[in-house]
Write a structure and sequence with these properties.
The protein is an alpha/beta fold and 107 residues long. The chain contains three helices and five strands. The longest helix has 11 residues.
């Protein structure tokens, strides 16, 4: 859905920005949102985006995203939605069960 007003992802996004992180997002259903008066645009989900990140945090599980491609190219994935459970390889931490999923747990 494209209504992000109640999304916990916004809180995380804002906290990371406040701490000085360079933060971007990709979402097939949300093209942009406003944060403190700034319009934040969605970025295309592709290998270049995954490889350029220090960490990819999954806050919403969308079947439109290729999670295996994400796992294959992101240096570290923190999965809060168990979206990568069927993926293999990579460095994946799944919230609540860091040893589960297809990837290796990173501590």
């Amino acid at each position: 859905m494209d209504d992000v007003r109640e999304s916990p992802a916004l809180v995380l996004f804002e906290h990371l920005k406040e701490m000085g992180a360079s933060v971007s997002f990709t979402d097939p259903y949300v093209k942009s949102f406003k944060l403190n008066g700034e319009v934040i645009q969605s970025r295309a989900a592709n290998t270049r985006l995954w490889e350029s990140a220090d960490i990819v945090v999954i806050t919403t599980d969308h079947s439109a995203l290729d999670y295996q491609q994400l796992v294959d190219h992101a240096p570290l994935v923190f999965d809060t939605r168990n979206a990568t459970v069927n993926c293999t390889g990579g460095h994946v931490v799944i919230l609540g069960n860091p040893g589960a999923g297809g990837g290796a747990a990173v501590g």
